[in-house]
Specification:
The protein has two helices and 30 strands. The protein is mainly beta and 382 residues long.
Amino acid sequence: VTVIVCASGVGDRSGIAIWDQTLGTSDIQIINPTVTNRGGRGIMFGTWGKTVTNCSVTGGTISGSGNNGVMLYAGGAGGQVSDVTLDDVTIENSNSHNFLAFEDDSGGDATCSDVTIEGCTITGAAGKGVYFYGMDVTGSRVKCSNIENNGDGLFNSAGTGTLAATLNWWGDASGPNNAATNPSGTGNEVSDNVDYDPWLGAEVVGCECDFVEDGTLDAKEEADTELVVDGRANVTAAEYANNPEADLWCECDKYIDVSIDDDANVTEIEIRLYYTDAEIEGLVESSLRLYWWDGSSWVECSNTGVNMAAVDSYSGYIWAIIDATSTPDLSDLQGTPFGGCGNPPPVPRVPASPSMLVTAVAFAAGVVALFALRRRVASQKR
């Protein structure tokens, strides 16, 4: 079942409610919804005693919900909500939480599990931006999302397991605040039982994550990037909205983040950062190279170059090959910023005209004559 929907306007109830306590529901896709100012929840996936599984929300905006922006609820004996994905969704300005996944065991052994939030913007909630309550979060993750300006950022409470929440932007380069593990962080707060390190140093505007085995992660639509993998791993490419670190002297204003979950089974990754003519205006195309942030400065990758052949709507791509002996090497790809860089054309030398040459010769002759005159005067005085 596919649902393509636009639900907007003021109302007392939820904008979109997938609720099942009769037969069980699966394979629901909600694509590019616009749900605004609903008195209840923006979108809800829930059940009492049945199963709601393999559901997704892709794109769209849920804004100004009177309750939670998006809510998952599993209750009743045997109730199950699982395999729910939010991808590239904006959830903002909810009066309660922007996202809540709630496992309610009061009516029996219910489970809520395997939730993925990826490439989303979650901001402005009066309560928590993201809230997992009472769940086993082992199979869930929050990744490559912007979580900022909420009452609290991300909380994992009253459940089991540690929530995977690396490679997110928390509103400040110092990372999320946690009194015990990152007291100097000034971004949105995270609770205990959340794995948030490494985090991103700037807002992201696009992200693609997937498992790749001897193939290519195509993230051109999300981040103007491809990752060609020799081996197998979960790989991620994200595009930054701006430079996440110190100024890069030769920038073409394209910054990405590349990570792999485990390099044990990877021999090589080729990073391809695609560009257009407009993006490299004022730079010599053949000079384009990929730089990486080594923790303190931008450094040119040890094996990098440029392919100037047009590909689709792009003019070419900057490449870097990362392996066990390169700089950076595969073990450095744990949330690593990369930036494209190129040189401006040399300033042309203006050839001297004949009149300029005559003037220069006359000036030089005058200087020589003056020097000789001073010598004669000096000798006569002696």
